[in-house]
């Protein structure tokens, strides 16, 4: 796991945009794994002008996760987030993008179809990840096992608390989600995790100095051959920056 630190978040955002451009330019039909959340909003804001004039007809994307159950067009759905911030601005066709369907009556079948789609496209070339305060990646919450395949999961109390701000009340917030599995994330050819802000400090500390455990799902990334973790000054405040590269 490679670490990159910066006091300037802008440099981290630009680094990710450069990686995405490299994957798009280096492959006629790349499959990119996208993440939602507050962390990635500035990345997508910078990505759109950088690539919108390119021919993106060969590009396909999958998203890490979606609340369950949720109406696809609800403002809080990850589908709505992606549609307004990425798919529409880039003019991507619905056949080019796959977001797990929070409306499905058969979550198991939706998860299997999601796995099959990734296999058919020869795997994910680059997967973007954020990290939860509790060390979750996608919505793989702390648990006693790593769930390898895409699945329906229960959101943890920490995640419900953190994401409640997007909903009117706890009663209107979905308490479950569909998430890409840990094995599926780990099978991506390369992975970039972005951690910004003070709230990510203790998860980062545990990730870097702790052991590999399903209690901290992100810890599995230490076993990935090409995973880069980008860390800003607040998230990296307690870390030894000489363990990585400073940009
Ligand atoms: C989102 C996702 C989550 C978020 C994480 C951090 O698709 O998979 O793991 O990356 O919860 O969320 P933010 O960026 O809002 O702090």
Largest sheet strand order: 5-3-2-6-9-10-1-11
Task: Outline the low-pLDDT stretches.
Answer: none
Give Rg in angstroms: 17 Å
Work out the number of β strands. Answer: 11
SSE topology string: EHEHEEHEHEEHEHEHEE
Bound molecules: fructose -6-phosphate
Mean pLDDT value: 98
Strand content: 15-25%
Number of H/I helices: 7
Q: Determine the N-to-C terminus distance.
A: 17 Å
Overall 3D shape: globular
| Oligomeric nature of the chains | single chain
Q: What's the main sheet like?
A: 8 strands, parallel
Tell me the structural class.
Answer: alpha/beta
Kindly describe this structure:
Strands 5-3-2-6-9-10-1-11 form an 8-stranded parallel β-sheet, with helices on one face. A 3-stranded antiparallel β-sheet has the order 4-8-7, with helices on one face. Helix 1 crosses helix 2 and helix 2 packs parallel to helix 3. Strand 2, helix 2 and strand 3 form a beta-alpha-beta unit. The chain is globular, with a radius of gyration of 17 Å. The protein contains 7 helices and 11 strands. 31% of the residues lie in helices and 18% in strands. The model has no long low-confidence stretch (mean pLDDT 98). The chain is of the alpha/beta class and 247 residues long. The site of fructose -6-phosphate has 14 residues, from loops.
Write the SSE topology:
Layout: E1 2-6, H1 9-26, E2 31-34, H2 41-51, E3 60-63, E4 65-68, H3 78-90, E5 97-98, H4 107-120, E6 126-129, E7 151-154, H5 157-163, E8 176-179, H6 182-186, E9 190-195, H7 201-209, E10 227-232, E11 245-246
Parallel strand pairs: 1-10, 1-11, 2-3, 2-6, 3-5, 6-9, 9-10
Antiparallel strand pairs: 4-8, 7-8
Helix pairs in contact: 1-2, 2-3
Bound molecules: fructose -6-phosphate.
């Amino acid at each position: 796991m490679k670490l990159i630190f910066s006091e300037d978040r802008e440099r981290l955002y630009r680094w990710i945009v450069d990686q995405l451009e490299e994957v798009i330019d280096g492959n006629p039909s790349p499959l990119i794994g996208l993440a939602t959340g507050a962390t990635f909003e500035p990345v997508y804001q910078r990505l759109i002008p950088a690539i919108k004039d390119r021919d993106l007809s060969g590009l396909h994307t999958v998203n890490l996760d979606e609340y369950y159950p949720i109406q696809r067009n609800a403002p809080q759905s990850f589908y709505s987030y992606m549609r307004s911030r990425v798919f529409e601005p880039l003019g991507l066709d619905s056949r080019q993008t796959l977001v797990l369907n929070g409306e499905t009556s058969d979550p198991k079948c939706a998860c299997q179809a999601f796995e099959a789609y990734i296999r058919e496209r020869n795997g994910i070339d680059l997967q973007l990840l954020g990290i939860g305060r509790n060390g979750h990646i996608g919505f793989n919450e702390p648990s006693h096992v790593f769930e390898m395949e895409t699945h329906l999961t229960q959101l943890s109390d920490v995640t419900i608390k953190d994401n409640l701000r997007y909903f009117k009340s706890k009663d209107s917030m979905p308490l479950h989600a569909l998430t890409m599995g840990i094995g599926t994330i780990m099978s991506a050819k390369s992975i970039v995790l972005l951690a910004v802000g003070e709230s990510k400090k203790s998860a980062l500390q545990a990730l870097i100095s702790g052991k590999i455990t399903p209690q901290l799902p992100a810890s599995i990334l230490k076993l990935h051959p090409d995973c880069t973790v980008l860390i800003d000054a607040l998230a990296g405040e307690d870390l030894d920056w000489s363990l990585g590269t400073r940009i």
